């Protein structure tokens, strides 16, 4: 393997690695606009010029493959490279409108950051603002994206994303020289269901996301790493929030799950999670609000009839949108509280859909983040499914129902599932429902307990590949809503008379013990940046290796 | 003067196949087809023929880079996108002897084992495309091209593709992109077209004039070709001469012919009896020569290089004493600013910036330091771009300013020679803009200019 030296530091890399990739691995910062790790290199911005010993001219690090013994000097240590990079930067600013004070990208703009860099920026301007080339501003590219052509650096990341990744190939450059502008084909609105990524790949303020424009200065935002709950793919995202409100969701790079992308549905799903129809307080069948201590006592009484144990069978219906940790506690509660119990989570055919693609890129047909986790935890160990349980309940098979419910973040609950849930709740004499939202088909429950929604609770989801990924808590749950883990711990305490340790670490250790497939996973690897704990492709799919708890 | 390319171009009938064939058209192809492709390559290498598109790269060697991959076609592309300002030599050949060009295409295609050749012709040459298309039809009808060329068993299909009027399509990777139906953004090399060219296949791109030399080399032999011209620049060169001369036009001269001899003799001297001021010898992308510098220069690659310029395409532009060099340079700079494809940053922004500064200079609104600014912008373009257009745009700017600096300085307003720029134009260094008015002046030395002038 070629051994390359960059700024005096050596690294051995695979044949075909570019200089910029080697530098990234070494942590040597090379400025760039057009290079993107998940797009084909094009070498057009010329910002990544480096000096290479034995080469007459500076070369672009993104399109130059390393050779054994190559000695590279970045602009941090080479005056030649620094001068070259500064020349490119100056060119990029010649016709730039310098409107940072009103630009949404300010604070996370490559042009801004590079200009402020003492090693190759901070030059004096030699251009009169009155002389700049003018282009189209505030161009509407559809419902997601707004273009300011004057801010564009023509790096073509968006063009390549559109052509190579989403395949819609809807944006392209027209005209020549310093009049080049980005356009959509025939000025049509973008139809790409991944169009939001265009704003993410744009290194400057040319493409901005309509759902975030002028909402908040980026330096005011707090960020939380999370996993999108819109489907079973489990895209890694970063939630940017301010004072308890999500301002935007952007992708986090994970080469083995979502690379650098997310779909627009996932990106905007937080709007639904934060919708108005939240259940804010525990509520009894009479509609009266309850305190949590009253609610837990009533739930315990309803489910177990005090300490005597229910005479009949209990149905514990988990959710493929719940975290592994809450499902673990639900399972334990079921095991300890009931002699006769049925556990399930299937509202439809999630296990069959968990792996089914909705498109060529990321979206999957199963709109739950944790179907795999529910399967691993044994919630589909028996023949079941909602229609079967409804029939059983209508024949008085179940004395009590404990249901955890989260509405899907992408799309609506199927009318069949909603109808079946309503029938189930009406058929079972005692029904305790943990739900984040107020929904008509849950209204008949004997007891409604408000539970934290996505981004309000931390824990892990297992995606369709079997990757266990940690999702963080960005927001506090509204009203009196609490995390499912906390509610279930309260219920467990009623059974065991001992408060279970619900720290994420303890729960994860218990999870790793409870699920054979998760053995060897540690919380430390889980909370590492990649958040990938268990990514073996093709393993632990439904119907293959045995399910825990069977 | 010996002629290879223009032997029959005076006869308008030469475009007809039977007329051309009576004069030996396609004899060279017949000769080539009787040998192996490698023998043809060896013959061309021995002739010393160098690419006539501008770079002067040895043609035989360019062909030898082709390594056919089983199952993958090889393509020959004839570059007829002649767009370099001052260059119209290919136009002359295409109009007057299309079969000569076509024969050259067939020889080259056979040598590199291509069965498909495209003639990429600039859109403005639409009328020539008709002539060429007729020639192709005739040659196909006569069994010269198409299936089993001249009964040899070698198949060759030749097609014409018209460009849409962009200079960048003459750049070989830009041409490939355009031919593929894409925006003509040049490609980063490596990989080179010989490995990944048209449709990702091994590809050779040769200029029209280069190809038109091949029939002679095949019929007369490499030695007779090499005997013409100079040692390292064998053969002849088509020179298209324009500007301040009495008889502008296309002339074929033996390599090594004195530049001024061509100007005085063939082109009839500087028109209106004026004095020669400067010559651009190889299209606007090469450095200009003053009259003095041009005097000893011969028309061949080495002599041009020794004089600090390039033979380039042979597009010779003559300036007389009445020419304003700044105005001429502005016209050239505007061409490059207009034709920069806009793909890579230095050329996209730099060519426009140079044209802008030159424009204000010519309009009498120049600023102190503008000439150094132009040179600095050129420095930041040169060697930093994907293709040669960036470098090409810099050569005229640098050479014009270096060689005719007084003319440029004379255009600067008198006060501009003394006052710092921001005092005249109300914008200045970042440090001064945040301070109270009046402090700005203190930051600069009115004689030395802005503190950042050296940047």
> Numbering strands along the chain, what is their spatial order in the largest sheet of chain B?
6-5-11-8-9
Write down the CATH class of the largest domain in chain B.
Answer: Alpha Beta
Briefly note the structural class of the backbone of chain B: alpha/beta
- CATH topology name of the largest domain in chain A: Rossmann fold
The biggest beta sheet of chain A reads:
6 strands, mixed
Total DSSP E strands of chain A = 21
**Proportion in β-strands of chain A:** 15-25%
Low-confidence stretches of chain B: 426-455
CATH architecture of the largest domain in chain B: 3-Layer(aba) Sandwich
Q: Low-confidence spans of chain A: pLDDT under 50, at least 5 residues? A: 528-550
Distance between the terminal alpha carbons of chain B, to the nearest Å? 52 Å
Mean pLDDT of chain B: 92
C-alpha Rg of chain A, in Å? 27 Å
Walk me through this protein's architecture:
The complex is a heterodimer of chains A (550) and B (455). Chain A is α/β, with parallel strands linked by helices. Chain A contains 15 helices and 21 strands. Chain A has three domains: 92 residues, Ubiquitin-like (UB roll), CATH 3.10.20.740; 82 residues, Alpha-Beta Plaits (2-Layer Sandwich), CATH 3.30.70.20; 244 residues, Rossmann fold, CATH 3.40.50. In chain A, a hairpin with an 8-residue loop joins β11 and β12. By secondary structure, chain B is of the alpha/beta class. Chain B has three domains: 216 residues, 3-Layer(aba) Sandwich (Rossmann fold); 83 residues, Ubiquitin-like (UB roll) (Roll); 85 residues, NADH-ubiquinone oxidoreductase 51kDa subunit, iron-sulphur binding domain (de novo design (two linked rop proteins), Up-down Bundle), CATH 1.20.1440.230. Chain B is 42% helix and 12% strand. Chain B contains 22 helices and eleven strands. In chain B, the strands form three sheets. Chain B has a five-stranded mixed sheet. In chain B, α2 packs parallel to α6, α5 packs across α6 and α16 runs parallel beside α18. The radius of gyration of chain B is 25 Å and the shape is globular. The C terminus of chain B is likely disordered. The interface between A and B is large, with 40 and 36 residues.
């Amino acid at each position: 393997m070629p051994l390359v030296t960059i700024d005096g530091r050596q690294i051995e890399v695979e044949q075909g690695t570019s200089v910029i990739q080697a530098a990234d691995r070494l942590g040597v910062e090379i400025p760039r606009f057009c290079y993107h790790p998940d797009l084909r290199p094009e070498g057009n911005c010329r910002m990544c010029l480096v000096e290479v010993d034995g080469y007459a001219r500076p070369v672009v690090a993104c399109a130059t493959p390393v050779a054994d013994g190559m000695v590279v000097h970045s602009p941090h240590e080479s005056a030649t490279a620094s001068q070259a990079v500064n020349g490119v930067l100056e060119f990029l600013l010649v016709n730039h409108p310098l409107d940072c004070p009103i630009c949404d990208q300010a604070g996370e703009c490559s042009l801004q950051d590079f200009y402020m860099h003492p090693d190759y920026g901070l030059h004096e301007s030699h251009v009169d603002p009155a002389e700049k080339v003018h282009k189209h501003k505030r161009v509407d590219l559809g419902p997601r994206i707004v273009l300011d052509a004057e801010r564009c650096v023509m790096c073509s990341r968006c063009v390549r994303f559109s052509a190579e990744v989403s395949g819609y190939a809807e944006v392209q450059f027209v005209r020549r020289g310093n009049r080049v502008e980005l356009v959509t084909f025939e000025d049509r609105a973008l139809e790409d269901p991944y169009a939001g990524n265009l704003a993410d790949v744009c290194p400057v303020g040319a493409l901005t996301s309509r759902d975030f424009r002028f909402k908040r200065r980026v330096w005011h935002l707090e960020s939380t790493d999370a996993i999108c709950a819109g489907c079973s793919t489990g895209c890694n995202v970063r939630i940017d929030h301010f004072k308890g409100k999500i301002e935007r969701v952007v992708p986090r790079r994970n080469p083995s799950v979502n690379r650098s992308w997310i779909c627009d549905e996932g990106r905007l799903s937080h709007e639904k999670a934060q919708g108005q129809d939240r259940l804010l307080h525990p509520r009894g069948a009479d509609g009266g609000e309850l305190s949590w201590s009253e609610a837990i006592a009533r739930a315990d009484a309803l489910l177990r009839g005090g300490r005597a144990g229910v005479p009949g069978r209990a149905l514990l219906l988990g959710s493929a949108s719940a975290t592994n940790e809450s499902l673990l506690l639900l399972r334990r509660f079921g095991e300890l509280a009931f002699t006769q119990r049925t556990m399930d989570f299937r509202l439809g055919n999630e296990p069959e859909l968990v792996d089914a693609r909705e498109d060529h890129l990321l979206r999957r047909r199963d709109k739950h983040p944790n179907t795999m986790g529910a399967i691993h935890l044994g919630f589909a160990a028996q023949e079941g499914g909602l229609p079967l349980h409804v029939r059983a309940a209508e024949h008085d098979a179940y004395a009590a129902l404990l249901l955890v419910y989260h509405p899907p973040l992408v799309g609506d609950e199927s009318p069949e599932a909603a109808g079946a849930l309503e029938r189930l709740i009406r058929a079972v004499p005692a029904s305790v429902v943990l739900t984040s939202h107020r929904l008509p088909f849950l209204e008949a429950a004997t007891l409604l307990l408000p539970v934290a929604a996505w981004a309000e609770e931390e824990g892990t989801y297992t995606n369709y590949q079997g990757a266990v990924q940690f999702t963080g808590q960005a927001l506090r749950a509204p009203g009196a809503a609490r995390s499912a883990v906390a509610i279930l711990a309260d219920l467990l305490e009623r059974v065991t008379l001992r408060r279970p340790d619900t720290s994420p670490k303890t729960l994860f250790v218990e999870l790793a013990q409870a699920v054979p497939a998760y053995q060897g996973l540690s919380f430390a690897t889980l909370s590492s940046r990649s958040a990938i704990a268990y990514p073996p492709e093709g393993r632990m799919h439904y119907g293959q290796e045995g399910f825990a708890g069977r | 003067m010996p002629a290879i390319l223009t032997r029959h171009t005076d006869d308008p009938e030469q475009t007809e196949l039977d007329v051309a064939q009576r004069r030996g058209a396609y004899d060279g192809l017949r000769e080539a087809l009787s040998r192996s492709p490698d023998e043809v390559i060896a013959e061309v290498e021995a002739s010393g023929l160098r690419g006539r598109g501008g770079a002067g790269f040895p043609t035989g060697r360019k062909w030898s880079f082709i390594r056919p991959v089983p199952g993958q076609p090889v393509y020959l592309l004839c570059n007829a996108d002649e767009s370099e300002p001052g260059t119209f030599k290919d136009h002359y050949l295409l109009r007057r002897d299309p079969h000569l060009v076509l024969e050259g295409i067939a020889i080259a295609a056979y040598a590199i084992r291509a069965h498909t050749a495209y003639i990429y012709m600039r859109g403005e040459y639409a009328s020539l495309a008709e002539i060429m298309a007729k020639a192709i039809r005739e040659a196909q009808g006569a069994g010269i091209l198409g299936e089993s060329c001249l009964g040899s068993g070698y198949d060759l299909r030749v097609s014409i593709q018209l460009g849409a009027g962009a200079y960048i399509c003459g750049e070989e990777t830009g041409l490939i992109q355009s031919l593929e139906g894409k925006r003509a953004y040049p490609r980063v090399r490596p990989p080179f077209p010989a490995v990944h060219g048209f449709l990702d296949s091994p590809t050779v791109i040769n200029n029209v004039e280069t190809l038109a030399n091949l029939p002679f080399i095949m019929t007369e032999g490499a030695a007779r070709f090499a005997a013409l011209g100079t040692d390292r620049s064998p053969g002849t060169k088509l020179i298209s001469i324009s500007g301040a001369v009495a008889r502008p036009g296309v002339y074929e001269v033996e390599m090594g012919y004195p530049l001024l001899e061509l100007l005085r003799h063939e082109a009839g001297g500087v028109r209106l009896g004026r004095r020669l001021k400067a010559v651009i010898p190889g299209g606007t992308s090469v450095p200009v020569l003053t009259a003095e510098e041009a005097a000893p220069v011969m028309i061949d690659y080495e002599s041009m290089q020794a004089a600090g310029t390039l033979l380039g395409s042979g597009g010779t532009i003559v300036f007389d004493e009445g020419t304003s060099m700044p105005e001429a340079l502005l016209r050239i700079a505007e061409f490059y600013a207009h034709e920069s494809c806009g793909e890579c940053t230095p050329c996209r922004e730099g060519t426009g910036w140079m044209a802008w500064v030159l424009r204000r200079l010519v309009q009498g609104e120049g600023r102190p330091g503008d000439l150094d600014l132009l040179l600095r912008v050129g420095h930041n373009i040169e060697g930093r771009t994907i293709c040669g257009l960036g470098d090409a745009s810099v050569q005229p700017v640098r050479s014009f300013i270096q060689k005719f600096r007084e003319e440029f300085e004379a255009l600067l307003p008198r006060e501009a020679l003394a006052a710092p720029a921001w005092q005249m134009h109300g914008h200045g260094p970042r440090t001064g803009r945040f301070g109270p008015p009046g402090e700005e002046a203190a930051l600069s030395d009115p004689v030395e200019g802005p503190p950042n002038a050296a940047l």
